[in-house]
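Structure in, sequence out. Go:
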């Protein structure tokens, strides 16, 4: 049984991407029941795509009124607000009934926000996928908040730290996306968490001839604050150094702040959701990712590298991927370093081609979903 907080299709968020490809690989070894929450109706088309990899799918739709009420109740206990956001007593009953009526051999729970549904099930081995250190991600965002929101983010970071440590003891197996995130889980036995990285879909290695229309490229969920900050940084700090260059921003749910960038500058184009995101990747010469916030592994970088798009990013985003500066990627951590790196790639064709080839080969060797999920399959068969 796999529990996820969002239906894993379309692939417009990092947790959905990870859930979908892990589900696809797990289905080769197990019969899978998928239990997914959703705050909107899931289309028959999307269900059909996921159904290929499931013996059974159960979608529990939450109304915004239920979500608001459950989140509000979190203010009066010690649970993280996001645990309240995704919790439903009706969904909990449905999970219990599924477990009672089916002979599941294992429970795989993605993200601690779903752990309330199964933490007290002690007759079946369970694996919790922390995915990343959520508490650290929220803590890094505290200083960026206006004064009236700081207390909320500080409270959520504190609640998450305690909750991550607490949930550790309810699950036999624990996984996380990278060693860097594992070090941020504050539990005395955190070293027992198994690192299960993300992978890359093989289709990203298939390239078609599309004209390069933009010097700079950024792709991601454009309602996610670290992504919003990244494109705002490119607009404010980097584009002024390159007045003849243009930035392409692609990805789901662009906020008004992101849309405003294109409305106020003829150097910025925002596409929103693209059915085949590979077409956006191929339109850009350089993937610029000044990621100053967030945790986990940036699949956007893996995808760009797989497609032969040279990337420039920060130490924070590069560390989980483990690429080498000036071999598979360029690392920059301030405005001067980003500008220098961009100039090197635009003006040095030899370096550009070297990064292209090395990055694509690195991702092909290190980050297939089959290889990544084999770690999880081994853990299910042979728990720690």
């Amino acid at each position: 049984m796999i529990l996820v907080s969002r239906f894993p299709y379309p692939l417009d968020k990092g947790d959905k991407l990870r859930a979908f490809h892990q589900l696809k690989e797990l289905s080769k070894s197990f019969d899978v029941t998928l239990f997914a929450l959703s705050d909107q109706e899931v289309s028959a088309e999307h269900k059909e795509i996921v159904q290929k990899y499931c013996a059974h799918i159960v979608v529990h739709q939450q109304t915004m009124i239920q979500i608001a009420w459950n989140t509000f109740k979190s203010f009066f206990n010690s649970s993280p607000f996001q645990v309240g956001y995704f919790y439903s007593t009706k969904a909990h009953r449905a999970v219990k009934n599924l477990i009672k009526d089916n002979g599941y051999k294992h429970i795989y729970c993605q993200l601690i926000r779903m752990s309330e549904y199964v933490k007290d099930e002690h007759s079946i081995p369970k694996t919790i996928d922390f995915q990343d250190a959520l508490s650290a991600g929220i803590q890094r965002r505290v200083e960026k908040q206006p004064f009236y929101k700081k207390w909320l983010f500080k409270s959520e970071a504190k609640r998450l730290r305690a909750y991550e440590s607490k949930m550790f003891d309810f699950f036999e197996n624990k996984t996380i996306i990278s060693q860097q995130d594992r070090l941020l889980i504050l539990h005395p036995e955190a070293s027992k968490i198994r690192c299960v990285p993300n992978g890359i879909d093989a289709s990203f290695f298939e390239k078609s001839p599309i004209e390069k229309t933009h010097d700079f490229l950024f792709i991601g969920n454009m309602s996610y604050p670290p992504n919003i900050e990244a494109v705002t940084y490119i607009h404010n700090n980097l584009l002024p150094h390159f007045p003849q260059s243009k930035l392409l921003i692609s990805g789901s749910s662009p906020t008004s702040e992101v849309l405003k960038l294109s409305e106020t500058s003829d150097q910025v184009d925002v596409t929103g959701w693209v059915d085949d995101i590979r077409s956006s990747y191929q339109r850009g010469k350089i993937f610029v990712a000044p990621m100053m916030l967030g945790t986990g592994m940036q699949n956007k970088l893996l995808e760009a590298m797989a497609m032969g798009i040279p990337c420039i990013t920060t130490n924070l985003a590069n560390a989980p991927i483990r690429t080498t500066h000036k071999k598979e990627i360029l690392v920059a951590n301030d405005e001067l370093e980003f500008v220098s790196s961009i100039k090197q790639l635009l003006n040095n064709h030899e370096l550009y081609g070297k990064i292209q080839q090395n990055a694509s080969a690195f991702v092909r060797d290190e980050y297939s979903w089959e290889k990544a999920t084999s770690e999880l399959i081994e853990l299910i068969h042979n728990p720690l």
